[in-house]
Design a protein that fits this description.
This protein is an alpha/beta fold. About 35% of the residues lie in helices and about 15% in strands. Strands 1, 2, 5, 6, 7, 8, 9, 10 and 11 form a nine-stranded mixed beta sheet that branches. The longest helix has 14 residues.
Length: about 300
């Protein structure tokens, strides 16, 4: 049984229906649906969505995720234009782009990220784009390709503590993810780097703090912490439900370590209220250059495309 703080009302109104219809008409996958995100009703009702590019089948089989895995079709060359069309029609000012992991592609799908960013910039020139990528198997050339189009934020989740990788992420590598985050910061020093961690899989307090320190040392300035929820019967079970007060404690600890902003709570996901997290950094000249964001660029107008 879920504790009271994880029980939600699912608001389905006219906006929810319109967003759902638009995404279906444009034949776009969303991580909201594929990963069974607990915030999808809220996000759809606020005209936000988590776009999932390069199909809905992953070449890996992480045991915390409900996205299908196995052989996938070739990426659709028209998909970047359709994602941008959805962003434009929804009036979005902040678009977070993610994908399934595509180890079957030579560049891990990095060129698809680049094309999608470029198309969003073309159709919605005022929109900022955050990308949430797989690890590209540690290929720095692929990372360069994804960053070449100028995303506002680079996001890659380590997901859990290294001890639990063999059980939760057997095809991933903790140190490889840290190196990817570090390389992203080296390539684009003016760009915020972000990562996320799930709690409730059996990690210890010491392991959580160690991971936060590793992420900060790798160049991350933004962090998300959320409760792991079992998305399907075959997925890993929840080891414990973390109380909201503990999430507050971890946010304070992360800020003490040096993170510039932290979203920490039971229902926080890596892309949830991503624009607000990004906007909180705006006054810091060490991370941003160019024209400041206008008032119309803030608020809940965001789209999320997630790994």
């Amino acid at each position: 049984m879920k504790p009271p703080w994880l029980r939600q009302r699912f608001p389905e109104g006219p906006v929810f229906g319109k967003v759902t219809e638009l995404l279906e008409n444009l034949e776009l996958n969303t991580v909201c649906r594929e990963a069974r995100c607990p915030n999808r009703w809220e996000c759809f009702s606020r005209k936000t969505a988590a776009f999932l590019i390069m199909g809905n089948r992953c070449t890996r089989g992480c045991r915390f995720c409900s996205i299908g895995h196995g052989p996938a079709e070739s990426p659709d060359p028209d998909e970047p234009a359709r994602v941008a069309e959805a962003a434009r029609k929804m009036g979005l000012n902040y678009v977070v782009v993610t994908s399934v992991t595509r180890d079957d592609l030579a560049d891990g799908g990095a060129s698809c990220f680049m094309s999608t960013i470029e198309e969003i910039h073309r159709q919605a020139p005022r929109a900022k784009v955050e990308i949430l990528t797989p690890d590209f198997q540690g290929d720095r050339k692929a990372l360069n390709t994804a960053l070449r189009a100028g995303p506002a934020v680079f996001n890659h989740n380590v997901e859990t503590v290294p001890r639990l990788y063999p059980r939760a992420r057997p095809q991933a590598d903790y140190n490889r993810s840290l190196e990817l985050l570090k390389a992203a910061k080296e390539i684009r020093q003016d760009m915020p780097v972000k990562s996320g961690l799930m709690l409730g899989l059996g990690e210890t307090a010491g392991e959580i703090e160690d991971v936060m320190r590793d992420l900060y040392a790798a160049g991350c300035s933004l962090l998300t912490l959320g409760q792991y929820l079992q998305p399907a019967e075959e997925a890993l079970p929840v080891e414990r439900f973390v109380h909201p007060d503990e999430f507050i404690k971890w946010r304070k600890k992360a800020l003490e370590i040096g993170f510039m902003e932290v979203a920490s709570g039971p229902l926080v996901r890596s892309s949830y209220h991503a624009h607000e997290l990004y906007s909180s950094l705006k006054p810091n000249p060490a991370l941003f250059s160019g024209e400041p964001e206008t008032e119309s660029d803030s608020g809940y107008n965001q789209a999320i495309c997630r790994r």
